[in-house]
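User: Hey, my collaborator sent me this sequence without any context and asked if I could get a structure. I don't really work with proteins. Can you help?
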Amino acid sequence: MDDTSPNLYERDVTGPFAALCGGGTNDGSMEDCISVAELAGGGYALGDTKADGAGRELRMTRDEITSFAEAWLARERQA
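Assistant: No problem. I've predicted the 3D structure and written it out in structure-token form, which is a compact way to encode the shape of the chain:
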């Protein structure tokens, strides 16, 4: 794959996926987790840890994932 491509879906995953779990229902089933791995050349691959979501990924640049997280947290604070 091309690690310099502007298309994140053409970049290789450089390391293992790490599970990030949240919510209040983490019973070890990974149902409330996402997996995250870095991409060669920058960016992140986010995966679904649920069995039905296996193999599906969303890829985001550092700026995109940061912007998303900040907007989500701001929304949660207003609720």
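In plain terms: The radius of gyration is 14 Å. You can pass these tokens on to your collaborator as they are.
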